[in-house]
Amino acid sequence: MKDAPSRTDETLYPSVREQLAKTLGPVRDMLCHELSVDVPACQFAMLPVYAVLDPRVNVELSIMPRAERTRDLLMSVCAKVEEALAQSACDDTKAQNIAA
Fold first, then answer.
1. CA 52 and chain centroid, separation
2. Taking residues 45-54, what's their average pLDDT?
3. Closest of 2, 4, 18 to residue 78, by C-alpha
4. How far is CA 5 from CA 68, 91, 93, in A?
5. Integer distance in angstroms from the first to the last C-alpha of the chain?
6. Residues 95, 45: Cα–Cα separation, whole Å
7. Keyword annotations for this protein (predicted)?
8. Domains of the chain
């Protein structure tokens, strides 16, 4: 795995910055475990952006190919990242507007 930039709508960022930051450690641990990588290989960047984002929180994962990283594994990892970030970035009224 190379890096995982997270882009958040600038208007949403101030209200979710602290909780998103707290989520990064557990998400990194999950990624390292699921993808069999060492912690130094997993880097994050949280970026507030002035753009029309839909969804309002967007994450890109750059994953180096390996035979054991099947489509099913990668889809499972993405679902876990999405769930973790959605829970930390929204309350029930915002949930429909936020995904990872």
1. 18
2. 77
3. 4
4. 24, 22, 25
5. 17
6. 22
7. Plasmid
8. 3-97 (3.30.429)
